[in-house]
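so my prof wants the structure for this chain in the tokens format not the other one, which i didnt know existed until like an hour ago. anyway here's the sequence
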Amino acid sequence: MHNSWPNPARSLPSSPCSSLSACESGNALVELAFSLPLFLILIAGGSEIANLAWGSVQINNAARAGAAYGSISRANAANTTYIGLAAQNEAPKFITSPSTQVTSTQLCSCVGTDGSSTSIACDTNALSNCASPNVIQVAVKVNTQAPVTPLVHYPGLPASYNVHGQATVGVVQ
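here's what i got, hopefully its the right format
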């Protein structure tokens, strides 16, 4: 006689999942849902840091360009307008107002034969303040500052960061 009832041992699986892949279906999607926001935050943070670093490099390069112009001669070292324009030409995206964002100073010193150095005023009396065989050395120091705006404004963080650059170069005499 043939029994039409199914065998209970054969019809029920031995475990809730018939295979390993059936038990893990959807796990990758859940892991992606948890890790994707973290990856996006890391990418956004990395791009913001790169933006600030690039702005800092540009502003420092602007200071170097201004100092390079001023180092050509003592007349150039005293010309703050053209030092500012040289800085602006190097970083036009950041240095938009050279008269307020770029400052330059002449630094004069009297260097003795023994290597000692004394700061003196950079004026017409400098020669009388530094007797021979001492030598007058002149340098130009350029400071730049500019705001760097983040790519995205995050609540709780500043809307812009003020970045400073500085360069000091000896003047050719």
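also thought this was worth mentioning. The chain has a mean pLDDT of 88.
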